[in-house]
Amino acid sequence: MKTICCFLLLLCTAFSLQAQVPATKVDNLRVFLDCQAYCDQDYIKREITFVDYVNDRFESNVYVLITSQSTGSGGREYKLQFQGQGKFEGLTDTRSYIRQATATDDEDRKQAVENIKLGLLPFILKTDKAKDLEISFKNAGDESKDIATNPEEDPWNFWVFNLSLRGYFSGDRNYSSNSLNSEINASRVTDKFKTNFSVYTNKNNNRFGEGDEEFTYTNERYGFRNTTVWSINQKLSAGGYINGQRSDYSNHDLDVSVMPAIEYNFFPYSESNNHYLGLMYKVGPRYFNYKEETIFSEMEEFRFQQSLSLDLSYNQKWGQISGSTSYSHYFHDFSKKRLSFSGYADIRLFKGLSFNVGGYYAIQRDQLNIIKGTVSDQDLLTRRRQLDSNYDFFFNFGVRYRFGSLFNNVVNPRFNGGGGGMVFYY
């Protein structure tokens, strides 16, 4: 009996191993999709079936890096970079397309598929599959919508407006919270000039406990901001920031700053999809009118400050790295300063092993707005107002290792749900 069981077990194992052997042609392109911007990989695999999709970039002979940047109209510019590996080493191609702000996800993924097909064409032509290739063109009479390229052709003169209203409500017998946020935004972006105006409001109500133990508080914040930038050349820009706000949490009845700025990019701005290294300097006045007296016995003050920051980001086939460091201080007292560091990295070490880490740390001595007086237990527990602290940080990390079948051509959506349901936890 034991002999029969062992035989059946070996037979099942053999069938299982045989089933895992990928039924693919040796000449198929092996494509690795690196979506560092959103892409619907299931849809791509359904629509482009003449290649093999692999889980490991080292096993691919065509590496596809997909990145994106926001456009002035609120859309996205996607850049698709194709890089040959192995026998296709040295063969590269780059394609890009614009997703309009009003486009649906379906329209976007169809654009992505068309551009991926075109990007893979130079590689297909170097394989035996080229003999099965058919070329056709859309009818010249097909209607298409042209994108305005000059202000004269655009009735809005490149201005884009956004209105938003958002509410949030949650709670139970012992706790409740609700907030209401609204914002009006106007922006205009061209190659030589960019400006953005926003006016926003936020009101948050909180309740802890019930009856005689009930404690409630409300935080309100209103403000406006403007960023304006002029392009000087491919690496240099100048402009400034104007900000104003009223905030219960920050003890500001009025906080207004005007900060002229200049930025130098060590790489041309046209290459910012792949790498960016920018140095920015800001300097200007800031006026404070406080709701309550501060720890420095001030109810209002007018100060000048300056800051210097260095920002970087790299998107390559081995992963992505981004980071920033900034130093600022007030001129009236150089000890009122702030030094901060932040960064994120997602790196593929080898094969299916990747490592990601991110965090932020700030040494802060510039909190002019802290309210004078003792700190209550309620202030500590609810964080209803900003408290004195000489540092601030967060940190996260993760490791991921994937192994198993190299190929992943199959799409099976069963039991995935519709993606729009509501979940209740008990």
From TrEMBL:
Q: Give the superkingdom in one word.
A: Bacteria
Signal sequence interval, chain numbering:
1-19
Q: What are the record keywords, sorted?
A: Signal
Designated name of the protein:
DUF481 domain-containing protein
- Give the originating organism: Pontibacter locisalis
